[in-house]
Structure formats: structure tokens, C-alpha cells
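User: Let's play a game. I give you a shape written as C-alpha cells, and you guess the letters that built it. Ready? Here's round one.
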């Protein structure tokens, strides 16, 4: 938008730019800056308008954008232009992701490059490498306590090797997603070090206080994120002689975005990694970006303004790069991280669908889809040009973050139901085959989340221990059906690295004192390559899981109705054990797929009358794309075997 006040400011800024920037001909940069400047200026003014150095800070921001644009390679600039043209590229069904730890999967970046064929064999073409930046050896929260944002941990390799990885992936038509830990730094970061030495400028990068007065006010309304291991939200720093805000672990210092210098530094970091070839950046813990006394300090309006600014700035310098919002918050809040606009994502193009993930686990424990269907029905709609990241398992704990009201509507008491789910997955519920552990148990609130690998949570570990073939079969089927939902749902499916070979819980972390009190490490084990090789031996657990997922992934890529264009319809059926939804190709509505998933361990009858009303089962049966077999109608019903999933076409 053209608006005179911001435009004349832009003209002034352009004159003030360092001569080596001002003299360059940066056609695409200037057209994009012109297009976004009104928004950037308005947002920056809303956040920092009352500061005396406002204009200076604006100049510094534009300089950062220009400097990183000048640095951006011709190949990446070309890819930006191509993506501008093909702007819906990421909504295609052809993308299938996997998240993995570089070191745990393949030792280092060289190893990772050498093992890309494993991902390709499975059909994965989007690689999310968990954080690899320089961190302290012990207090690092699995890479989420960054000491130097511009340096790869030497154990993994070098920054150049990341760029090489990106280039290799590009040749294979694969995407690279990297983490940017925007909310906090390690207490060993240079900024924290300077703050400790008494440097006021850098103390202002964080929230530091001389006494408990302000921290106590904050504490009245701030929940605890790691209540068991890092209670409270402030830590006393002996060297500095001050309290510092640490929402996560005591060694993770929260950044103070009330200071524009912090935002500009972070935008510079974002663009640095965009320039190393990342296609997608996962912005960690975005819900926490803005702290305000008297609030829960999550999902604040200013956190959204900051994300809009980050997006607007990234669009000027590296418009082909997408953001993933990692906001594990209430269903109604998550979709706001797309940005509240009519069509385009104003903040992040992609958001973790934590609601669907948690609902899927509800269906596993209850063996029915009542809460799941209710939750899916009430899933807030997303923008046209934005998409979900659908996942079953990730490196974190599972929080049961769906809506109490959906639990009620499904006929359960929310408190009791959540208690049941925690008991079920931690094996306290008698008869449960799950082998999880409670994470972040909070005796004050009774809350807990769940740790454990996918395979162990669905009962594969206990089934193998008991040599119970039927239970092994049920666990494998459960793994397949959970993936069938994330592959068919609409959005980008993100697998977790050990899941395709049925990786069980690992207790190796207990031997490491730096990890022992954080049981999320039980599902972050070293990838077992000899176990992985079993995927080629017919009849093994690994082969049964791997081949089922591989087949569904290959199919997904061919099914145009699985692209994400708001083309999913949840269908009400007369059997609460089943999740039923349809997907249709917006280009050709006759091209559609009916997805039916039976979460129960007994076969289920589904009367087809309701589905006929939607045009399905007009003939005798429908064809299952996964097995190639027909699902026949008998007495106006179809029978779905226990724990089965179907992708049906006419
Ligand atoms: C994220 O997690 C990371 O995924 C975790 O591995 C880190 O420990 C954490 O940030 C700190 O960097 O902030 O918005 O339920 O879901 O900690 C959500 C706990 C986060 C996680 C939460 C999450």
C-alpha cells in the first residue's frame, strides 16, 4: 500500500543508507520494500513508535534487510522469483516431511548428506533438521539453548556444510527446514555474557530485575512450562546479581522484544539462515514472544505483531522462505499464527497442528473417534494460503491441548477424561499396553504431559516383550492408521525419524546427567541403522511398518484431492469408533477420496445411507487405494476390520 507519511520516511531512509548499499541497483529488493514498507513501518511504529531513536532503528532494520539481500545468492534469488509465481507451491500434496536430529540420525552433516537415500526410499522430501547451532555441551535443551546463532556446533560440521546440504537437497527436489530459536538464548550467549558483566545495553536484551518485586507480579499470572525441572519463570544470576526471566529452563534467558535491537538481531539471524539455503524456518515457541505483566505472557497481540514484522521483512529479502509457527497452544489460538487476514498468511504460512496430534492420541486411548471427530469439526478454519503441519509424534512431550468443550460434547467429563488419558499412556491404567512416562507433572494443577516413542505408546514394546503376535499386529496397524490420517488430512505431514521402523523408548539418556531429568530424551534415541536394515526383511516389524508408510506416502503424492485447498469435509456417521472425512480436488470435484479410519480393536459396521447422501457408495462398493481391494456393501453396511484405514474412490 502507498501511504504518504511512510513513503516519505522510506525516501529519507534510502538516502541515509550506507553508500555501499545506496549505490547498488537492487531492483527486486526495492519493489518488495516498497510493497511492504507501509506495513513494516506501521507495525514498527505500533511497537516502538514512542522511542526517541525510532528512526535510527528503522534505518538499521532496512540496512539489515538490504545487506542480507545483497548477500543472497543468485540461485536463491531465482528460487524466490519462481516461488512468487507459483505461490501455492507448498499446498501441494507432493510434500512429505521428516524431523530428525543430525547427530542421532547420522553423526554429522556429512553423514546426513550420505544418508538422504533413506528418506527418499520412504518418500520423504522435506527434511527438518533439529537445531544444530552452537550450544553449551550440557545445558542445551536439545539445541534450543543457543550460544551462537551464526555458528554450527562443530560436532555437526560447518555453516558451509549446511549450505551444501541445502544445495544437495535442492538437486533431489527436497526441502530443508531449520530451527530459529526466537524466544530465548542460552545463558552463555555473548549477549548474556555482556549482560552479566554489567553491560546495560545487553541487559536490555533480556528481562533483568534487581529484586523480586516485578518478577513476583509476573509470577501471579504466568504458568510454569517445566514445573518439575525448572519451576517458576525467573532465575537468580549470581554473577549479575539480578533476577532474569527464564520461562523454560533456568539457563534459557527470554529475549526482550520491547527492545527493537533484539528484533533486528533476530531478523538478521532469520535472513542469515535463509541465505544458507533453508526453504522453511521453524520459529520456536512463538507464543511466548511478548511478556506483559498481569497476563499469561502467551499469545499476546504484540507477539503476533512481531511475527508479522518478521514475515514482512523476510518477504522483502527472501520471499521464497516459509515460516512454521511452533505454537503449542489452544486450538482457537493456533490458527491466529497464520495471521488474521482474508487469504494470505501474514505471519507463518505453516503451523503445527498440535490439536489434531493430541486428538489422535485421544482416539488411540479411547479406541474411538468421538472426541477426535468433535475436535476436527471445531478446528478453526485456516487461511487459503496457509497450511497445517500434521504430525503424530515429535521430539517433545504430548500435551493434551484440545478443548474441554469438545470433550464434553463427546460425552465425557474433561477432568476425568484427561486423567484417564495420562494414566493410559503412562501405563497406570490397568490393561493399557502403553509405556509412556509423565512429563512436566504439576502437583499444583494436576496437569501432566506424556513422553514416549510412538511405537511404545501404541503398545509395540509391551507386545514384543510378551511375544504377543496379536498385540504386535494391533500396534503396527495403529502406527499405520495414525499416519494415514496425517497423510490424508490436508497439510504437510511431518514424520518423526524413528517411527517408520518402530523405534521403541530408549533409556540411554539416563546415563547422561545432563539429560537424565528430562524424559523427553526417551523418544530422541540414536537411530538404529541395523534395526533400519530390517525394513528389507519380509515379515519383520520394521518391514511391516516401513512398507505400509512408504506405500501410503507414494499414494498421497498422486492423489490431487490431498492437496490443501480447504477441501476436506468431515462426515457424520452412525458409529463413534470411526473417523470419516472426504477430500476433493478443487479443480475437478469428481476426483475425490473418502477416508475412513476405525480406531476400535473390534470390527465395525458402518451404515452407508448417510454417506450415500453425499454421493458415496452409489454402486455396490468403493475401491481402496491403499490395498487395491474393494470395500463391498452388504445389507446397506460396510464392515471395517479392527484398526483399519481406507482411502476410497468410486
Ligand atoms: C519448544 O517447545 C521446543 O520444541 C522444545 O523442545 C523446547 O524445550 C522449548 O520450545 C524451549 O525452546 O515452546 O510453543 O510442551 O511443547 O516447550 C511450544 C512443551 C513450546 C513444549 C514447549 C514448546
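Assistant: Ready! My guess for every position:
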Amino acid at each position: 500500500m502507498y501511504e504518504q507519511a511512510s513513503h516519505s520516511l522510506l525516501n529519507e531512509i534510502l538516502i541515509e543508507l550506507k553508500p555501499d548499499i545506496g549505490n547498488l541497483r537492487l531492483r527486486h529488493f526495492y519493489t518488495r520494500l516498497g510493497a511492504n514498507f507501509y506495513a513494516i513501518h506501521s507495525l514498527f511504529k505500533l511497537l516502538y513508535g514512542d522511542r526517541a531513536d525510532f528512526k535510527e532503528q528503522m534505518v538499521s532494520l532496512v540496512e539489515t534487510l538490504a545487506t542480507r539481500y545483497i548477500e543472497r545468492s543468485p540461485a536463491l534469488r531465482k528460487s524466490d522469483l519462481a516461488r512468487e509465481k507459483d505461490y501455492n507451491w507448498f499446498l501441494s500434496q507432493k510434500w512429505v516431511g521428516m524431523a530428525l536430529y543430525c547427530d542421532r540420525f547420522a553423526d554429522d552433516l556429512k553423514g546426513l548428506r550420505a544418508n538422504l537415500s533413506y528418506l527418499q526410499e520412504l518418500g520423504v522430501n522435506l527434511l527438518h533438521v533439529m537445531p544444530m547451532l552452537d550450544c553449551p555441551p550440557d545445558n542445551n535443551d536439545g539445541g534450543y539453548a543457543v550460544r551462537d546463532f551464526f555458528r554450527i556446533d562443530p560436532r555437526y560440521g560447518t555453516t558451509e556444510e549446511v549450505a551444501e546440504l541445502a544445495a544437495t537437497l535442492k538437486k533431489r527436489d527436497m526441502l530443508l527446514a531449520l530451527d530459529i530459536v526466537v524466544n530465548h538464548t542460552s545463558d552463555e550467549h555473548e549477549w548474556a555474557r555482556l549482560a552479566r558483566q554489567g553491560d546495560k545495553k545487553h541487559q536490555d536484551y533480556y528481562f533483568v530485575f534487581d529484586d523480586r518485586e516485578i518478577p513476583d507480579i509476573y509470577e501471579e499470572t504466568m504458568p510454569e512450562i517445566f514445573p518439575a525441572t525448572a519451576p517458576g519463570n525467573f532465575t537468580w544470576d549470581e554473577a549479575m546479581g539480578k533476577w532474569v526471566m527464564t520461562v523454560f529452563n533456568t539457563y534459557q534467558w527470554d529475549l526482550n522484544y520491547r527492545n527493537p535491537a533484539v528484533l533486528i538481531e533476530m531478523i538478521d539471524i532469520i535472513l542469515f539462515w535463509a541465505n544458507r539455503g533453508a526453504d522453511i524456518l521453524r520459529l520456536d515457541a512463538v507464543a511466548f514472544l511478548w511478556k506483559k505483566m498481569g497476563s499469561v505472557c502467551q499469545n499476546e497481540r504484540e507477539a503476533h505483531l512481531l511475527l508479522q514484522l518478521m514475515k514482512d521483512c523476510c518477504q522483502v529479502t527472501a520471499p521464497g522462505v516459509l515460516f512454521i509457527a511452533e505454537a503449542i497452544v489452544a486450538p482457537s489460538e493456533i490458527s491466529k499464527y497464520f495471521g488474521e487476514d482474508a487469504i494470505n498468511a501474514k505471519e507463518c504460512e505453516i503451523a503445527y497442528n498440535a490439536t489434531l496430534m493430541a486428538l489422535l492420541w485421544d482416539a488411540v486411548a479411547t479406541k474411538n473417534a468421538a472426541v477426535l471427530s468433535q475436535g476436527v469439526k471445531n478446528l478453526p478454519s485456516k487461511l487459503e494460503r496457509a497450511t497445517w503441519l500434521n504430525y503424530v509424534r515429535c521430539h517433545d512431550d504430548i500435551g493434551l491441548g484440545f478443548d474441554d468443550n469438545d470433550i464434553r460434547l463427546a460425552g465425557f467429563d474433561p477432568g476425568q477424561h484427561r486423567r484417564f488419558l495420562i494414566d493410559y499412556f503412562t501405563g497406570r491404567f490397568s490393561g493399557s499396553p502403553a509405556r509412556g512416562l509423565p512429563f512436566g507433572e504439576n502437583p499444583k494443577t494436576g496437569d501432566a504431559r506424556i513422553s514416549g516413542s510412538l511405537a511404545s505408546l501404541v503398545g509395540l514394546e509391551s507386545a514384543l516383550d510378551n511375544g504377543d503376535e496379536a498385540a504386535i499386529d494391533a500396534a503396527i496397524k495403529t502406527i499405520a492408521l495414525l499416519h494415514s490420517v496425517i497423510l490424508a488430512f490436508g497439510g504437510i505431514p511431518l514424520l518423526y525419524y524413528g517411527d517408520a521402523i518402530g523405534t521403541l523408548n530408549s533409556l540411554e539418556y539416563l546415563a547422561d546427567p545432563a539429560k537424565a531429568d528430562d524424559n523427553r530424551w526417551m523418544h530422541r534415541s540414536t537411530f538404529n541403522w541395523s534395526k533400519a536394515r530390517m525394513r528389507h526383511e519380509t515379515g519383520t516389524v520394521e518391514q511391516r511398518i516401513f512398507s505400509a508408510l512408504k506405500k501410503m506416502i507414494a499414494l498421497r503424492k498422486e492423489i490431487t484431492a490431498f492437496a490443501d485447498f480447504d477441501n476436506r469435509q468431515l462426515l457424520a456417521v452412525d458409529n463413534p469408533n470411526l473417523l470419516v472425512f472426504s477430500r476433493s480436488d478443487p479443480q475437478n470435484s469428481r476426483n475425490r477420496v473418502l477416508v475412513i479410519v476405525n480406531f476400535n480393536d473390534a470390527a465395525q459396521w458402518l451404515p452407508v445411507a448417510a454417506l450415500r447422501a453425499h454421493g458415496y457408495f452409489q454402486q455396490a462398493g468403493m475401491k481402496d487405494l491403499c490395498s487395491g481391494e474393494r470395500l463391498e456393501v452388504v445389507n446397506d453396511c460396510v464392515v471395517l476390520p479392527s484398526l483399519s484405514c481406507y482411502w476410497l474412490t468410486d
